[in-house]
Amino acid sequence: MSSQRLCNVCSTPTQKKCTGCSIISYCSSKCQREDWVEHIFECNSPGRAITTADHLALAVKRGEMPSDPLTLQHFEFFRGPNPRAAAVFEMYTDLINELGVRPTKLNTWRENGTLIKEIKQAFKRIPPEELATRSYALYLEITHRNDRTFYPSELEIESCLWLVGAEFGGKLLIKSLEEFKGLLRDRLTPMSVTQINAQTLYGAVLATPPHAPPPEHTAWLVFGFCACNELNEGLLIYIYQTLIRVCTFAEVDAALESCSMISLMDSKGLKPWRIQLGKELEEVMSTGPKSFLPVWFLKNHLLAEKESVDVAWRLFGYPNCRNAGERSALDSVFRKLLLTPEAKPLELQDALLNGTLYEYASSRIEMKSNDRKLYRRLLQRLALRDVSPGMLGY
Questions:
Q1: Quick check: 200 and 79 in contact, CB under 8 A?
Q2: For residue range 181-208, what is the model confidence (pLDDT) as tens digits?
Q3: Which of 323, 313, 322, 321 is nearest to 352 (CA)?
Q4: Reported pTM
Q5: Residue 14: beta bridge partners?
Q6: Which of 193, 173, 192 is nearest to 183 (CA)?
């Protein structure tokens, strides 16, 4: 007779185990469903690809705002200094906890381009007086716009006064903030996700002193700053400063949306500077904002210094860590591989695909003999049969 184990949710004695990993035990399908939101990130064989909707559901369960950039972009969280992000999170909390919408359904809505339409239908099942005030107020607002648009908040309006010059070919036609606000009120049009990211770029590179968008913001990824290091980041800032002076905001936004930013740079005479940033920039700009390689999420994880369960966490060995000390050790390895001027991110990505992370790491950085066993276990070959092509950036 096999020894009994305890249910991971309610501690009831049981002999049943997760069929994917055969490690975690559950006494019933109800307990397994309740725990699946978290366990899917740890299970050796979850049966499907992990999506940004899974990240959102995990954040809701933990009561914490999502931290990975792609989840924030896919589910339309307002980035930067916008207090309505908390209301968006409350809305999704109601949607998942009160209305019982599963991550698989959320992901289907997003992929079909019907996210807001379906949210509207879902909320019709609950009387308004039973919903959190802020959440329902936001629900009323977002149902007046389409799936992929935002209206700028008061703080966003104040932060993009510089857009006037860019929008009208470099001529500052508006002399005061109040006049600018009035113009926007008269001609207010929804702002797309790419426009929000472009706004963040403009605000960063035209600031005094100029700087890159922070790693916590999606703009850091989509405008290619993830491909830079501390020595050449200033060159990319200069390229965008120049581009802003010779292009309209609409041109920059269109180039980002169509993944043709490299062509726009080259057409404006910036190729001699652009090629100094190597093939990494070309790789990012040819796929973003549609898709990013896991290695860029790993770099974001290291720079943002926030614990998050994302694509990089799952693919680069973090589930193999048994404690905080081992996670810190793995961070240290990847910092040496990604955050130095000699870093070769695309080689690290290839090592991931080839299942040779340990071999690559040990060939690039010095490891003490007594640490090699630890890193070999942490960076052991990934079972690629359990990983969907989308998780690998293809």
A1: yes
A2: 554 554 445 567 787 788 888 888 887 7
A3: 313
A4: 0.56
A5: 5
A6: 173
